[in-house]
Amino acid sequence: MTTTTSTPGLDARTRAPVADPPLTEIPDGLRGTGLPGGPPAAIDVRGLTKRYGRRTVVRNLDVTVPTGVVAGFVGPNGAGKTTTLRMLLGLVRPSEGSGTILGEPLGEPARYLPRVGALIESPALYPTLSGRRNLASLAVLAGQDPAGVDAILDEVGLAGRGDDAFRTYSLGMKQRLAIGAALLSDPDLLILDEPTNGLDPSGIRQMRALVRSLADGEREAGANGRPRTVLVSSHLLSEVEQICDWIIVVEQGRLAYQGPTDGLMASTTSRVELRPEHADSLGMLADLVAGFGLPVDRAGDRLLVELDHTAPAAVPGPDGPDGPDGPDGPDGPDAVLAGLNRAALARGITLVEITRQRTSLEDRYQGLVESTRETARSTGTSSMSTSTSTGGEAR
Amino acid sequence: MTGVYTVARSYRAELIKLRRPSTALAMAVLGFLTVLSTVLVMALADEKPTPPDPGAGPGFDLSLTQLASSQGLILGFRGGTTFIGLLIFVVFAISMTTEYGQGTLRTLFLKEPRRLGWLAGRLGVMLSAVAVSLVAALGLSVAAATVMAAVRDVDTSAWWTSAALGEVAGAYANALLAAVFFALVGTMLGILLRSTSAALLIGIAWMFPIEHIVQESWSGATRVLPGLVFDAVGRGGLPDASYGPALLTAVAYALVAAAIGAVSLRRRDVTA
Fold first, then answer.
1. B55 in the Ramachandran plot: left (φ > 0), alpha (ψ -120 to 50) or beta?
2. I want to staple B16 with a disulfide (CB 3.0 to 4.6 A). Which of A137, A390, B189, B223 is the partner?
């Protein structure tokens, strides 16, 4: 028997190593959400709106980023990501909305910006000044000791080029220097807007590793004794899903989803292909699967079965209907598949192939974006809010 | 006290940025313009005295006799104040629009969100640089005047008296005041328009050709229009605009420019 798992559009090999550590540190993916008893959220804003004349760029956006997570802020180009980030950073005045950043009021950026580092859009530093003098000038402006500049240059891998003019740097080096500028104040909150824009694949990998290390390194070392929160925006979900524990999806200035990255997948459907050893047992297998309440279709010598995470099938557990899992059997797609396999075997059907095709995060994201567009079209300025069963919030 | 610290930090940070080629270039151009003015004034001076013009201040229409007076040493420097004003306006306008154009303003405001404090520190540094540059330009002008006096056979015995040194100090102070006024207007236009081409086009077109065209048909323009008023202050007063009223009018313009610039910088979104 062959059992394979394919995930179109998702590279499981690159995702797995970086997804585990932060999630183990953040129970239920909800550390510091501002819930009673927990630490305050790093970012907690409500009803954020920005209008330019009659055009609304950001509409009634609620954003919560738990303390200590690496959060992805995702949406297509023009979704309002950069405007939202500019509002969070005091560069753009919100038309409406309130909230807190690091526990300080949104309307008073001077109170929280000293603890925030940010890179907004392209790196903007002085072309004729060296990397070192660019950072030294910003350090002095922020009230930091410019003596720390060398350590920052070292951290972002530019120690050997610190005395070269900024204009001579490659785009990747410019991005890294701009991140260095954001790190000058050893920030509790790091906001990076499209940090991989314009980078080649190698530069993207380096940037991804740098962002992840900025979050993980700080957590492990505890340099300032406080957890560091990182908010990374991108128009590519595949870009942020590899490094983020928490995801916020926006479309047309509206919130489409926010919650744990894994939660974004939780309500999706998995499709499974089952191939019995003998084609003449397809009918019996189809009846068996349908008997468990799972949608099934025939496709040649195999069956296509839809597994809905939110509605586990009543398949038997390993100990049968009277076992500890009860008559409804175990939860979860893996357990459902195992139950199906056992039930088929019990009826003399041998499965030679079970192929699971999970809906990719990209597909789920696209579905959310289209759903939000549809909501915007049908309701005008209003939006509907519902909560998923996984702690995430979808609109 | 927070505001004072902000200004002090901004001043120190801008000081680090000042050491770059564009600063040296601007200083060199200022020195060159001053020397050029001095050379031209002395080279083109008439052999015979010009007819007396009651109330007339020193202009380009000079004689060697006037050059031999206690004011002779700084007549060239004074004549260059129009050029200096233009240069200062351009430099301050461009330096502000470039911050918007390069996006560096957002980088700065992420580090120091108290925008007015940052602006005060920045203007402080740039005007300090202008003050130093004007000292250097004055020195170059004096040196050029001394050389030209020998060439034109001008008697310089009155140049090195205490009265002449007082004239030098006055000329420097007036040039610096005029530079501050031009700087404030340039900065205000830069903040307001956020575009180098628009700021230079509007500022230069208004303060130079348009004001001078109006001046041709209305002598009162020298006492009213900003560019001409600033120029009158820089020259220590003119026949159509005596020093005191010109200074008051210039201060009023500068205050209005500062207020507009401050409100715009503080309240408008930074989208660059």
1. left
2. A137
